[in-house]
Amino acid sequence: MPVFTGFVAYGICFMKKLAAKPGLLRIILILAFALGLGSRLTAAAEGLSAADDEQVVTVSTAWSMDRARPGDALTLAVVADIKKGFHINANARQIKASEDFKPYATRLTVVTADDGITIGAARYPKAVGVKVAYAAGDLMSFEGRTVFYLPVKLEKTLSPGMYKLKLELAYQACADNYCLFPVKVFIPASIEVAAVGSTVNKINSSLFSGYQQQPAAAGPARVNFGMFGWSFSIDATSGWGVILLLTTAAFGGLLLNLTPCVLPLIPIKIISLSHAAGNRKKCFILGLAMSAGVLVFWMLLGTLIALVSGFTATSQLFHYPAFTLAVGVIIAVMAFGMFGLFSMRLPAFIYLINPEQDTRRGSFVLGVLAAVLSTPCTAPFMGAAAAWAATQRPVTTLATFSAIGIGMALPYLILAARPALVEKMPKTGPASELVKQVMGLFMLAAAAYFIGVGLATLFASPPAAPSKLYWWPVMGFCIAAGGWLALRALQIAPAKKPGALFAGIGILMVALSAWGAVQLSRQGPIAWVAYTPQRFKAEISRQQVVVMVFTAEWCLNCKALEQGVLNTPKIADLLHRRGITAMKVDITGHNPAGKAKLNELGYLTIPLLVVFAPDGKPVLKSDFYTADQVYGAVMQALKSADSSG
């Protein structure tokens, strides 16, 4: 048992180092390590003794050609030969987590590659269900000889010679009653590039026969984008295609500023920039600092998605109630600052949460907060780009998320570079105070929203829908903002017409907020069926057309689409027809089955609507859709049911 004893020796050495740590920290670290070590040593002892120290998985590589020429496209196979009696968990899009077991997903990534080699997303074989003693239901896995394929494209400008790349295969091998430690294997590979016009030969034909049968392998890898019925795709295998894709991601980041997640912060930043508008240098530095905050946060997210196994989407942060509650508390503190509360003597940590916005540090923090608030929302084009980036090598992933950050930060740079756009904002006097007070009330509404979502997530019990009562305090603050605007506008306006105009805006805000509280907290006109895998299979077996909607309480885009598209009489009446089932997948709380279904459909973010024909095949998949688009897809699915019946 050399591996086992080596691990024990490592643990003893680490414990000695911990013993040198001072005080309470030493006790906490020793206890934490001892608990983790104990459980891992037990698993290691059982696993390694069962395997008899033999290698469970052997990894090798093979090319589809003996050599290549500049401009050629070829394929690299990564072959994992798995010992009989063992399996490795499937990749993230095929794996299914259960309540009692969260498997470690297999992932093949490119670590390094010489210049001139473009590598597409890894193609995984179809997983099979394996019955295990430690999880309910079948565990989606790979068994026996498992082959992963990487499409490779060589640039036309390559010179003859040997070119190298380095891959990483991360996997966890399991038997039917225990699992071994997750393993990361680094795999070197090289290909000879011959001169243009040289003869090349196909090799390993039997190994690549299965790959050639995959439809996706016939053409270049493309990323599909769509918004409200308009769609296009980008070839991500070419250099210009990647540049175009990054540009599209940046445009998606720009549109994030128009989502309901970010809008409450924009007026606050405009106010802070207006105070510095007379000093062009200071105004530009503040705008640059906020832009840097936005960009740093998105780069951090890209790094997490590139390097942390299991972290695949920006909205995953809001799956954790503690994070959502913390965001709500921070926004509330900033809101109280808008009312002048911080003129009082408060604890020092409060000023770290809400620093002065006319300082570089304050603007940077505001940029980070704006980026944090954007993560529950997905702008058009951004979701597809982020999902594609999550499957690429770390450099590409980081570049894509940086592009999203640059796009989101662009408006703040423009405002800072053109102070004339903000210098007309009132800087002092009753009008300035009124703007701050109204914005403060809107921020309290945002704080109530995040705190309410955090509590709803904490107490959610999927597949049942979470509580929506938190919308009443949210809209209550909006009603207060509208009422205060109407009252104070009539009191301080120097002329009757401006006063009446702003009073009318305030009254309209009150009416819309009251309507929103009623609409958002009620069930709605559609009798949704909560998704479970069993219910979905049952509806398909009954030859039903299934309209499946993915949503979550923290997804404001989902709420907007549900109210503006699905709850309209045209669609609500359609979904009540015979032969149609309206099914909702709410991933607010711990809903592994719902998240697995989202991954199965090839998406990492929501909103998402899918129309399934009675044979279970998707007719429409869209994250931004119109009523006409949904109606047409459902009618098409009904026609296919009639023709097949």
Task: Describe how the helices and strands are arranged.
Blueprint: H1 2-19, H2 23-51, E1 57-63, E2 73-82, E3 87-89, E4 107-113, E5 117-119, E6 128-131, E7 138-142, E8 145-154, E9 161-171, E10 173-174, E11 183-193, H3 209-212, E12 222-227, E13 230-235, H4 239-255, H5 266-275, H6 280-307, H7 321-338, H8 348-353, H9 360-374, H10 382-389, H11 394-417, H12 429-458, H13 471-492, H14 496-521, E14 529-530, H15 533-541, E15 545-551, H16 556-566, H17 569-575, E16 580-586, H18 592-600, E17 608-612, E18 618-622, H19 627-644
Parallel strand pairs: 14-16, 15-16
Antiparallel strand pairs: 1-2, 2-8, 3-7, 3-10, 4-9, 5-8, 6-7, 9-11, 12-13, 15-17, 17-18
Helix pairs in contact: 1-2, 4-10, 4-11, 6-9, 6-11, 7-12, 10-11, 12-13, 13-14
Structure, explained:
This protein has 645 residues and is α+β, with helices and mostly antiparallel strands. The protein has four domains: 2-51; 57-208, Immunoglobulins (Immunoglobulin-like, Sandwich); 235-425, no CATH class; 529-644, Glutaredoxin (3-Layer(aba) Sandwich), CATH 3.40.30.10. It has 19 helices and 18 strands. The chain has helices spanning 2-19, 23-51, 209-212, 239-255, 266-275, 280-307, 321-338, 348-353, 360-374, 382-389, 394-417, 429-458, 471-492, 496-521, 533-541, 556-566, 569-575, 592-600, 627-644; strands at residues 57-63, 73-82, 87-89, 107-113, 117-119, 128-131, 138-142, 145-154, 161-171, 173-174, 183-193, 222-227, 230-235, 529-530, 545-551, 580-586, 608-612, 618-622. Strand 6 and strand 7 form a beta hairpin. The longest helix has 30 residues, at 429-458.
